[in-house]
Structure formats: C-alpha cells, structure tokens
Write a structure and sequence with these properties.
The chain has 804 residues and is an alpha+beta fold. The protein folds into 3 domains: 1-22 and 50-80, no CATH class; 112-289, Penicillin binding protein transpeptidase fold; 403-781, Beta-lactamase (3-Layer(aba) Sandwich). Helix content is 41%, strand content 11%. The strands form 7 sheets. The chain has a 5-stranded mixed sheet. A 5-stranded antiparallel sheet has the order 7-6-18-17-16, with helices on both faces. A hairpin with a 6-residue loop joins strand 1 (95-98) and strand 2 (105-109). It is elongated, with a radius of gyration of 41 Å. InterPro entries: Beta-lactam/transpept-like, Glyco_trans_51, Glycosyltr_51/Transpeptidase, Lysozyme-like_dom_sf, PBP_transglycosylase, PCN-bd_Tpept. Keywords: Carboxypeptidase, Cell shape, Cell wall biogenesis/degradation, Glycosyltransferase, Hydrolase, Membrane, Multifunctional enzyme, Peptidoglycan synthesis, Protease, Transferase, Transmembrane, Transmembrane helix.
Length: 804
C-alpha cells in the first residue's frame, strides 16, 4: 500500500466512524433517564448535556468532512501532478576550454561552476555522508518526513521563522525541478512532487542528481566542483573526512565554510561522523580516527583575468559566429572545447609580447598571432597583457594601418598577369602618379631614396614605393583590392586610389595574417580558426569548416614567397634570416606619420605577424616615438618581436627551405608595357645595402662639413642650414628629412633601415644615375634593431594617408 493509499484509507475510517450506528447508539444512550436510586438531573442541565452532544457531533462531522476534502484534494493533486522537465539552471554545466593537447586547461564558460559526474565512480561513504547530514531516513521514507514537516510547521507558526523540514528528495525536487520555493503552496507542491519522485525514481538516481545539483559554497555547484574548490581534487578521490566536512556545511555553505566559521564547520563535521557511525556507514575505528581535514585557501579567481581572457573570448566568438552554438549554450552545455592553441607557443608569445623594453610608452599597443598556414590553425595570439584591464583584443579586434605589408598582394597580381619578376622598373624618388582620377601627386620612397633601375624582387625586398605604385597602375586599384579579398582579407580596401597598395586601410592582425597565409600556403585558402573540435562526453559535436579552396596558382604564390625572402636577407629586415639560421619570407610595413608598424614573416610551416600602434585617449592615431633604440620603422620593434618569437618557437627544429618556383612570365609583361618594357635585367656588383650605406655616409659627411661651417659663422642663415642638415641626417633611429616630411603634393611610404643584426648576404644593387641592379653582389654587414623611415602627408586633397 502506497503512502497516498494509506492516507486515504485512514481518512475514510475516521469519516465513517463519525456516523456509524454504534456512535449513534452511544449518543442516544447518553441522554437516557437515570437509573432508579440515582438523583435525576434537573431540566436545564439535561438540556445543556443535549447541546454539548450536538456540538460534538457537528464538530466531528465538520472535521471529518474537511479531512475528507483535504485528502480528496491531495489525491487529486497527486494524480494530476506530473514530474516536469529539470530546471535549466539545475543542469547547467560549465564548458571547459583546453589547449590543443586536450588536457591542459585554459579556462571555462559558465553561469554556474558545475561539473556533472557519474556517481557510480564515487565511494559509498560520499553519498552516505550526505544522507547522514541531511536525511537519515532517506533510504526508508517515501519522499517526505511527516514528523519533520510537522515540527518545521510548528516552529514556523510559533516563531515566524522559516525552518526546513525537507528530505533529500524534497530538496532535490525543489532544486532540480521547481526552483526556490518558500510559500506554503509551493511547499505542498514540493511534497507531492517528492512523493511521486520517490515512487518513480531509484534512490541512487535521486541522491546522485541531488549531489550534482546542490550549492556547496565557494561558487561550487555539485560535489565535483566542491571537491576541487575545497581540496583541489576530484570527487571520486575524496576521503571519508573530506566527504563529511562538505556534507556538514550543506545547510549554510557560505556561512559555515571552514575559512569563515571554522568552529561551526568542525561541529557539523563531528555531527556527521557520529551519525555515520551510529547508522553503520563507517566503523567505530574510522569514527575515532576521523580528523577535520585541511582545506585550500579561498581564492577569488576569474578565468578572464590576465591573457587567458583574450583566448577564451576568441574561442567563444568563433563558435557563436559559426552559429553552431549560442553564448548561453556554451555557458551551460558542459562541453569540452579543444582549441588549436599550442601551450608552448602561447607561453612564448605572451612572454615576448609582455617584455616591453624600458622607455616604451604604456600607450603603445602590441598585437600578434602565430599560425600554421598549411591548416589555418592558430597556434598563439597576443591580445594584450590583461583582459580585465584592456578588453579590446589586439590580435583580433583592434585596427591599425598595415602599410607596405600589403605590397605582396600587388606582387601576386603581377605574377597573375604573366609579368616576369626580373622586369625592370624606375625606382627613383619621387615619381609622379595619377593617384585618383584627375588627381596627380608626387610619391617618394622611404628616405626619399632613389634606387635607379630595379627589378620586382629587389623592389619587394627594399619596399620601393614608386615601383609598386607603377604596378598598381597596371593592375588597377579595384583588381588589387579583389586579390586581397580573394586571399581572405575581410576588411574594407578602397578601390578608387593607387594608394591602396601602400596599405592605407585599417586591418586587424588576424585579418592581415589570413590574407598572407593564403600566399604562404601556395594559393590554398584555409579559414583561420582557433577551435579544433567540441565534444560532449565522447561525442564530437563540432568541427570547423575550413572552407579550403585553391584561389591562386601555386607557382604564382611561390614566386611571391621567393621575392619576400629578400626582405630578411638584404632588404628592410636584413639579418633576420641569418639570426634565425633558416629561410624566412617577410614583409615590413609602416603607417603614414609613423603611427603604426608591422611585420609579417614565415617559414614553410609557421607564420608569425606582429604590429604596434599608438592610439590616443579617444582612439586617435598618434606617432610612435622612439624607445630603447627602436624607431617606428617596421624593421625595428615588430621585426624584433618576430625574431624573438620564432627563435624560441622553432628551437631544435630542422631548417626548412621554400620550393623553387619557375618564372615563366614575360619581361615587361605580356604586352611589354610593364615597368621599363623589355629592358633586360643585368646583374650588378653594386647592391642595395651598399647604396644605403653610401647615401648615409655622404649625408653624414655633408652634415659634418656644414656643421663645422656653422660653428665658424654667426650668420643666421648658416645656423638655419645646420638645423636643416640635422633634420636631413639619416640614422637607424628613423629621423626624417625635410623632403620626406613635406614632399610637394606627395606621399611618403616605404620601409628602410637595418634588420635584426648579423651578416647580411646582399644581392641588390642600384645607383642614383639609373644603372642596372642585380641579384648577385657583394655581401654587406649592417647591424642594428631599427632603420630610418619617414613619411610625408598626402596633399592630394582627398584625405588619403600614405603608408610605408
């Protein structure tokens, strides 16, 4: 007979007894005349006794009726109450993000810190400790404890307090199905639901769900999270003492936390151990040997603190953007997300980015990314030092002007148009171009340096602006923009100005890396991604769609890679390849007015991109000042970051070499109208490094002579000349000459200067009178961390800003 059936039977018995013949007989005999010899009562008293008997009948009838109604109502509610779906918050489980090894945790997303576990792995004493603390009759009761409820009701009515008399099943019903209930009607529904649960669910199932649901303090929901919060271990590894401590503080976990109220926690611990011994869950010896366990210090942690916040939000944003998950699902679904991030590379990336040299202004922002261009897997990002202090991710969200790092897309366009990279161009400075329809402007090279006759490979290595403006004249700005977009760049690129090849439009580090990764992967585009897979238990729930597509000819892209090798050998980042002891394709870039600088570089299997910029308080662009010997030149600090990262990330790995492409293009292009037409390339022993050194020596000598003249003369004109000559001096620290600062209707772009140091095999040559330059030449030695760059404002009237 069930609990409800017993209660219905008792109610019917009480009701029927109040109207039975026997009861009626007793009622009638109570008013008979007294026996002989007894004093007969007087009239009025006889009437009073009759009234009393009548009232008792009425009272019993009313009580019986009410009880019958109550039982009937209870029966109706029991029959019509269904066990609902669990409350969403009760089964909400945190999602954990891991590095690509699948075991090293980065952090988690959660509404509540809960990890749902299979209770079959728990020792029996864990559940028994909970039972001893909360509901000794759990294994015997039908879901409710009548005496406990009555006691709680009495105390609530007499004291006005809210004392609980709930069983484990009732608490489970409240937390798992109903949410918080404090009203009497809510408690009645809770009791009914508990009875139904007791009759339909196994006791072990109820206890397990309860242990996975209940709040246990320190932000931990469920036993697994609590075991980690208090003891730094999993629930399956808890000892008897540890289980008893956690069980003891269930009624008020925050107030009875040993770190808050150790005496109360110990008192509750002793109580639980005693009940466990009395009820046979542990032996007397175990009870006597029980010792209050030591807990971990309370830690207020935030998974988003420090650099991890950038990693976690990038993972979350990628999954939400895929439409495979909502933000809410990620915070409550209990998924295991395995990222593409490499723990060692991420550590190196963070260390390199955080290691700011002395004198580097705090306002300067740094962003970086490392990836495998063959798969599009992001291996590391540098979004900043602390997400809680700066929530704009410098790798994925912040914008900067990339400058000349956009030139390789124009070079690819030349290869696509069947232009041989030995085609000669006029590399002198400045040169006049129709930058927009009807608008002409003089465009100088960096340092206003004239390179004479120079081929495309040399122009790429030395970032010669005038050559690439000429290239864009043939391509058209619209086609250049299309090539960049086809490579994967999603940012806006102007289609109405030749300057777009000089990187005047703002991009993110991620966007720039996406575009270059396609060239580095021989023309096959893979969508950059930071999530490798998402699991729920052992089931794979998500795998990214890489959108793999061959968008460019492989040989064309290899030609671009080959040209970019010159940048790190003898060009604007000379010495980088020698320092790393391996082939490195690279391209530097500097924004107009020295407000940003960047460097893109890669080996055949690893790409690394860095950028720095200097936003003002309101986000406006500011000049990046010199610091620690670094100028803003992209051959300075960004290439330093690149070299530092790659040296550590590739340590111990064999050097790889790039494939050798075949240049089947035509000198001067298919129609002979590119560059200087059919003029053939003739190697020269004079090279670009020598040209830079010669220019610097000549300027230095001239400055010294004019400075001496100034010292021997007090004429103001001479003083003015000396001041101007100081401005014209070219140094690795990137000072500007007057010609570069204010070219007439001009736009100064380009990169020049020293690389990261070391011996530089130089194979570029040119001279100012237009002599041919070649790929073979004398080796040069140029040391230093920075090179001189300079830029003038674009005065064409259309507001465009030039880049280097």
């Amino acid at each position: 007979m069930t609990t409800v059936e017993r209660m219905v039977y008792q109610a019917r018995t009480v009701s029927s007894s109040s109207s039975s013949p026997r009861a009626a007989h007793k009622a009638s005999t109570s008013h008979r005349a007294p026996k002989r010899g007894q004093n007969a009562p007087k009239g009025p008293k006889k009437r009073t006794n009759r009234k009393k008997g009548l009232w008792w009948k009425i009272l019993l009838g009313v009580l019986g009726g009410l009880l019958a109604i109550g039982i009937g109502l209870f029966t109706y509610l029991y029959v019509t109450t269904d066990i609902p779906q669990p409350e969403k918050v009760a089964i909400a489980e945190k999602t954990t993000v891991y590095y690509n090894d699948g075991t090293t945790e980065i952090g988690s997303f959660s509404e509540q810190n809960r990890e749902i576990i299979d209770c079959s792995v728990l020792p029996d004493y864990v559940g028994n400790a909970i039972v001893a603390s909360e509901d000794r009759s759990f294994y015997r009761n039908g879901g409710i404890d009548i005496m406990g409820m009555a006691r709680a009701l009495y105390n609530n009515l007499t004291t006005g307090s809210r004392q609980g008399g709930s069983t484990i099943t009732q608490q489970y019903a409240e937390r798992y199905y109903l949410g918080d209930t404090t009203s009497y009607s809510g408690k009645i529904r809770e009791a009914i639901l508990a009875m139904k649960i007791a009759n339909s669910q196994d006791k072990q199932q109820v206890l397990c769900n309860y242990m996975n649901t209940i709040y246990l303090g320190r932000g931990a929901y469920g036993l697994q999270a609590a075991a980690k919060a208090y003891f730094g271990k999993e629930a399956k590894d808890l000892t008897v003492d540890e289980a008893a401590m956690i069980a003891g503080i269930i009624p008020a976990p925050s107030m009875w936390d040993p770190a808050v109220n150790p005496e109360q926690a110990k008192s509750r611990f002793t109580r639980v151990i005693g009940i466990m011994r009395e009820d046979g869950y542990i032996t007397g010896q175990q009870a006597s040997e029980a010792k209050f366990p030591e807990t971990k210090p309370v830690s207020v942690s935030n998974d988003l603190a420090g650099p991890n916040g950038y990693l976690l939000t990038t993972v979350e944003n990628e999954l939400v953007a895929s439409k495979a998950f909502t933000k809410d699902e990620l915070e409550t679904g209990g998924y295991k997300i395995v990222s593409t991030l490499d723990p060692n590379m991420q550590k190196i990336m963070q260390t390199v980015g955080d290691d700011r040299p002395e004198g580097m202004p705090e306002s300067i922002q740094v962003g970086g990314i490392a990836l495998d261009q063959k798969t599009g897997s992001v291996k590391a990002i540098y979004g900043g030092s602390d997400y809680l202090k700066h929530q704009l991710n410098n790798a994925t969200q912040a914008n900067f002007q990339p400058g000349s790092t956009m030139k390789p897309f124009g070079l690819l366009g030349a290869a696509m148009d069947d232009v041989n990279f030995n085609t000669m161009f006029n590399g002198n400075s400045p040169e006049r171009f129709e930058t927009t329809p009807g608008t002409w402007a003089e465009v100088p090279n960096a340092l206003n340096m004239s390179w004479g006759t120079i081929n495309l490979k040399q122009a790429t290595a030395n970032s010669v602006n005038t050559v690439f403006m000429n290239v864009n004249q043939h391509l058209t700005p619209k086609k250049f923009a299309q090539i960049a977009h086809d490579a994967g760049i999603t940012g806006d690129i102007q289609e109405d100005t030749l300057y777009n090849i000089l990187g005047i439009n703002s991009l993110t580090v991620w966007d720039l890396a996406q575009g270059h990764s396609t060239i580095a992967n021989d023309g096959t585009k893979n969508t950059l991604h930071i999530v490798d897979r998402v699991l729920k238990g052992d089931k794979e729930m998500y795998k990214p769609n890489l959108g793999t597509k061959q968008v460019f000819d492989a040989n064309d892209c290899m030609l671009v890679q080959n040209a970019m090798l010159g940048t790190t050998q003898y060009g604007t980042a000379a010495g980088t390849a020698a320092t790393l002891g391996r082939q490195v394709a690279g391209k530097s870039g500097t924004a107009n007015d020295e407000t940003a600088a960047s460097f893109v570089g890669y080996t055949p299997s690893l790409m690394n991109v860095w950028a720095i910029w200097n936003p003002g308080e309101n986000g406006e662009s500011q000049i990046v000042p010199e610091f620690a010997g670094y100028g803003v030149s992209s051959t300075g600090y960004p290439s330093h970051l690149f070299t530092e990262f790659m040296a550590q990330a590739l340590a111990g790995q064999p050097a790889e070499t790039f494939a050798t492409p075949v240049d089947n293009g035509k000198i001067g292009g298919p129609n002979g109208d590119w560059g200087l037409g059919g003029q053939r390339y003739v190697p020269s022993t004079n090279n670009g490094t020598q040209q830079r050194q010669q220019n610097e020596q000549q300027q230095d000598s001239q400055n010294k002579q004019e400075s001496n003249d100034s010292n021997t003369s007090n004429e103001s004109s001479n003083n003015g000349d000396a001041k101007q000559n100081e401005q014209q001096q070219t140094t690795p620290e990137n000072t500007k000459s007057p010609e570069q600062s204010q070219p007439e209707n001009g736009n100064t772009n380009g990169d020049s200067g020293g690389g990261t140091g070391g011996n530089n095999g130089s194979n570029n040559g040119s001279n100012n009178n237009g002599s041919n330059s070649g790929d073979s030449g004398n080796s040069g030695n140029q040391n230093g961390n920075g090179g001189g760059n300079s830029g003038g404002q674009n005065n064409t009237g259309n507001g465009e800003q030039s880049q280097r």
